Amino acid sequence: MKFAKLFAAGATVLVSAATLAACGSKSNSSSSAKKTLNWEESAEIPTMDLSKAIDNTSFNQLNNVMEGLYRLGKNSKVENGVASKTQVSKDGKTWTFTLRNSKWSDGTPVTAKDFVYSWRRTVNPKTASQYAYLFEGIHNATKISAGKASVNTLGVKAEGNNKLVVSLDKRIPYFKLLMGFPLFFPQQEKAVEKYGSKYGTSSKYMVYNGPFKQTGWTGSNLSWNLKKNNNYWDKNAVKLDTIHYSVQKTPSTAYNLYQSNKIDAVSLDAQQTKNLKHQNGFTLRPGSSTFYLQYNQKNKFLKNANLRRAISLAINRKALTNALGGANKPASSLTAAGLTKVEGQDFADKTKDTDYSQYNPAKAKKLFAQALKELGTKSVSFTILSDDTDAGQKTTETLQSQIEENLKGAKVSVQNLPFKTRLSRSTAGNFDIVVTGWGADFADPISFDDLFTSKNAQNNGKWANGEYDKLIASSKTATNDESRFSDLVKAEKILLKDQGITPLYYQTTAWLVRPSVKGIVYNAAGANYNFKGAYVSGN
């Protein structure tokens, strides 16, 4: 159980390109140098504003420079963060958190009011947070997000500086896990007001309360640092002085840096995975994540369900995963494989699409011909958008080749852009087809299935189905898990039958990690890295 979200194609599960790193170059062999971790990222940071973040890279930065009521430890174990004590009412609807004496990086106290301010800011429709829907269940959150109630009526209040009381409209089974997700972390009102529109756009326009504080990020550069935060309440548990990040979009370049001891972990492409799988330090990082195609329903061609089905059937997912490397597996569901079990069966198996999420060129041709007839045309053209990472480019190249080969009359163009730009284009609905990666925010299929309700801000293609919406809504008021999961299975089958999205693969990333790198906590669901206790042992 854990958290993730959107990430770049080819990005490691979690911080969009998760590559463990450690002590610098060979010359950095002193004890002081061993307190530096060198980390590879595959994509640039879009934002550090937690109310506006929607991607893996941003949230992983926030997870290490900020702290909420809880932190998520090994195997997503909930550990106390800013909260030192929690009381829950018998009906599960009132949570009272006692806060410890902790500080912001500027030395001022972190108080209950910082949580109240942060949560209200995120659900405020003026903020336009695409993640505000996760507050659903907290009293009045949905009404506030819809502009039908004042932000001051949100079910969260401060009783003095060190007591936070949260009121829920209904019991939320995964509420504790949500409190460890950066979306629910505090924000300092003084900093947000001071920096205004610049808040979260660079390291200097921020204040931090986590184990580290960020330095050197200008908003667009490809390297920055996390420095130990000496005002952090548990600073004695933080062993590293510095985590140095550099964005590496080319696997060969990144591997050369690893070989020369300039980074201490590297994600591997297909050939590297094959060649290095027996090397010391080879590690597979599973992620509760699925990559899929999202179709823009405003496109006159792609609005046709049979065209979408034909495209899906024209894709050889095994060949695609072979091209990408790692241990990626062909996907036949939206919910990631291995996320959770229902009645002893993987939920992804219960929703598995056997009609269209397979490679069947003959069936694809028939449906394509039917689609052309329905559209009244002899050909169609569209562009597939993805990231400019190595994996992003391999994905679009493979899809372009397979679709044009199997669907004569389909003209496919590709466009690969920097992650931040691609994310902006996706959010604005400025695409025909976009390759999207989503990692679960917690180990429950609703983290995936909620995305494609008609009004969800992450539903960039604007696919809509009334019955799907009803089933998702029903699942949230179900009185037992059997009924809830039944609704979710039915809903996902509707999505897949219509090919509202086309599953491509479940992501697992292959890495080389130096054995000297210790203490990093990685949680597959959400692909989350926690560097609080990380260190580099002696060579």
Describe the structure.
With 539 residues, the chain is an alpha+beta fold. It is 27% helix and 22% strand. It has 16 helices and 25 strands. Strands 13, 14, 15, 18, 19, 20 and 21 form a seven-stranded mixed sheet that branches. Strands 1-12-11-10 form a four-stranded mixed sheet, covered by helices on one side. It has a four-stranded antiparallel sheet with strand order 4-5-9-8, with helices on one face. Strand 23 and strand 24 form a beta hairpin. The radius of gyration is 23 Å and the shape is globular. The chain starts with 35 loop residues before the first strand and ends with a strand. The model is unreliable at 11-33 (pLDDT under 50).
Average pLDDT rating: 91
* Percent of sequence in beta strands: 15-25%
What ranges have pLDDT less than 50 throughout 5 or more consecutive residues?
11-33
How large, in whole angstroms, is the Cα Rg?
Answer: 23 Å
Number of strands: 25
Regarding quaternary structure, what we see is: single chain
Can you tell me the overall shape?
Answer: globular
Largest sheet: 7 strands, mixed
Q: Please give the alpha-carbon distance between the first and last residues.
A: 34 Å
Question: Helix/strand-derived class?
Answer: alpha+beta
Q: Figure out the total of helices.
A: 16
Q: Report the helical percentage.
A: 25-40%
Fold topology:
Layout: E1 36-41, H1 56-65, E2 70-72, E3 78-80, E4 83-88, E5 94-99, E6 102-103, E7 109-110, H2 112-123, H3 141-145, E8 156-158, E9 163-167, H4 175-178, H5 189-195, E10 212-215, E11 223-228, E12 242-247, H6 251-259, E13 265-267, H7 270-276, E14 282-295, H8 305-313, H9 317-324, E15 329-330, E16 341-342, E17 345-346, H10 347-350, H11 361-375, E18 380-387, H12 390-406, E19 410-417, H13 419-427, E20 433-439, H14 446-449, H15 466-475, H16 481-497, E21 501-513, E22 517-518, E23 521-523, E24 528-530, E25 535-536
